[in-house]
Amino acid sequence: MRVLLDENLPVGLAQHLVDHEATTVVALGWAGITNGELLRRASGHFEAFLTMDRNLATQQVHASLSFGVVLIGARSNRLGDLQSCVPEILRVLKTLQPGTLVRVGA
């Protein structure tokens, strides 16, 4: 699965998403763009978008997206705090459907 990590997530998280092709918003040169534009650019190129941006859940219409969104709830966006969420993220990615938003973590 092609996974896009939001700019609020550490690059090192991609290494933990085994069996998935993960890249970051920063690596694509998309840092700093609005959520709406980011989601538009990701459409058709990714099957999943991982973020910690809680506002995304209320700002965007997820049903129309061509990919699923995983909203990560962790103590912070430090890799050490995110590692405990990795097993749940991997489990969710197996069944994530386009147009859905799934919350993982606390």
Helicity range: 10-25%
- What spatial order of strands do you see in the largest sheet? 2-1-3-4-5
Instruction: List the total number of helices.
Output: 4
Number of separate domains: 1
Average pLDDT confidence is: 92
Alpha-carbon distance between the two ends = 24 Å
What is the H/E order?
EEHEHEHHE
What would you say about this model in short?
With 106 residues, this protein is of the alpha/beta class.
Describe the structure.
The protein has one domain (2-105). It has four helices and five strands; from the N terminus they run ββαβαβααβ. The chain has helices spanning 35-42, 56-59, 79-82, 86-95; strands at residues 2-5, 21-24, 48-51, 68-73, 101-105. It is globular. The protein has a five-stranded parallel sheet with strand order 2-1-3-4-5, with helices on one face. The protein has 106 residues and is α/β, with parallel strands linked by helices. The model has no long low-confidence stretch (mean pLDDT 92). The longest helix is centred in the C-terminal third of the chain and has 10 residues, at 86-95.
